[in-house]
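Ticket #4471: structure export looks truncated?
Reporter: QA, pipeline team
Priority: medium

Steps to reproduce: submit the single chain below to the structure queue and open the exported record.
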Amino acid sequence: MIYKHIRSLSRGIEVLKYLNTVSGAHAADIGRHLDLPRPTVHRILETLEELNLIYQGPFSREYRVTPSVRGLAGQRTDFGELRGAAWGALQELTEQVIWPSDLAVFHEGRMLIVESTHRLSPLSVDIGMIGLARSMFDSPLGRAYLSDCSAAQRAKVLERLHADQGPGADWAQTLATVDRIVADGRRDGFSTCAEKPHPRCASMAAAVCVAGDVVGVINVVWNRADLSYEEARDKLGGPLLAARDRIAVELGGAPELPAFRPDMARVMELAA
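Actual output as written to the record:
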């Protein structure tokens, strides 16, 4: 017997599938992505919310799938736990400094962005950050990971980088670069790429540690035309590290990394 296709059910499942691939979305985003009329989207969302399959965030007003749906979809991973623990701190950080933030994890030799507040920040021009990867050497996310990870974690990263670089690479130079990255990050409490040419955006990043291991890295991204690195350090460094510590506590750990040490000479110069 051939049963008739239930169109409304199919559309509802498509909405759930889409929401399970993003950290949150407004009704307009869902309709645009799935090419659905606005009234249809709202009817589906109301139904899914009544069934406790999705909920609407109290601040962002974005729709998100509930933990039970992520469990059914096989998404109860460390990434999901980390994203859940980090979201409140990231949102609060963006509300405080206005500039957007990202959360990234080490994945297949690069830093994979798994959460972001770019869509919440009025100063951001980059929306689709989740799923993008960043270099271990040429991004503050990668440098913060290398700076604060355990010796075992760093060895794993270096093994992967060595394999990717191939036999012709200058491995001694690579190790020297890693030593400098580690020293700079441990000295400052967070990592940057101030020496790299960034025509538009810049960022600083800090690692989240639990039980001695880096479980993720968060950053703050700003427009180079609005803040120099020195100004960003003084204005954004403290809030960034406070968010890092809050995430560590949410994950059952405790802040283990250096507290923010402002450049007092620079503070006095700005205050003059």
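Status: closed, not a bug. The export was complete when the record was re-opened. Leaving a note from the reviewer for reference: The first helix runs from residue 7 to 19.
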